[in-house]
Every structure is written in structure tokens, then in C-alpha cells.
Amino acid sequence: MSMLTSPEHGVAFDLQRIAEELRAEGAYAREGHTARTLVHTPDLRIVVVVLKAGDTISEHHANVTASVQTVSGQIRLQLPDRAVELSVGHVLVLGAGLRHDVHAVLDSTFLLTLGPPANRTGRVGEGSNG
Fold this sequence. Notes:
Structural class: mainly beta
Helix content: 10-25%
Number of helices: 2
């Protein structure tokens, strides 16, 4: 990430424009979804994902706490014990290791935010020099 787009100096993103760019990519047409990482630092990762209506991102999990926030459309996440529908403006927080899939009810854009990895002691955000 260049100094001009570094979060240390503040950075803004036009999510609608980014979603339009992603929908114009070949991967979206071929696979029904694509994504772009907006921020990737040691303590934060933010990814914008576009998902075509009817498409599903198969079951997976993150090794860190994550949140999914719907920017446009409507998505459904299938968790081990229930389905959760997220319309525009709704957010779901997922614990580390929670398996889920993501299905687009409508053409959708969502933000995936991933927290920092835990260190070997299991404590988040604490350096090894402690």
C-alpha cells in the first residue's frame, strides 16, 4: 500500500464505484463473484466483495474474528446452526473458525472486515516483546 493510500494518513473509498469496476471484470462474469482488498495491514484487512444474484461462495471460515456488512443487495449466510439474512446496512460478526457459506439473494456488494490474528498465546494485538 503506498503512503498516499495508507490508513495512517486517512483513506476513503467509493464503494459504489469499486463495485461497478468489479462487476465489469471477467471474473465476475465467469464465476459470479469477485473481490478487491481495500486495506491490508497487520491489524486490519478490509475486502469488498461483489456477488451475483443466485451465486454462492462455498463453505469456508476465517481464522480470525470477521464481520460481513451488506452495502447493496441482500445476502444469506448459512451458519452451522442457522441461516442469517443480511439486507443493506446490516452486519454480522463471525467468531474465528465459524464455518459458513454466502449466498446472494440479489446482486450484492458486501464488506468483509478481518481482525488481527491472535499471537501464539491467543491474545490479540499483543506483540511478542509483550
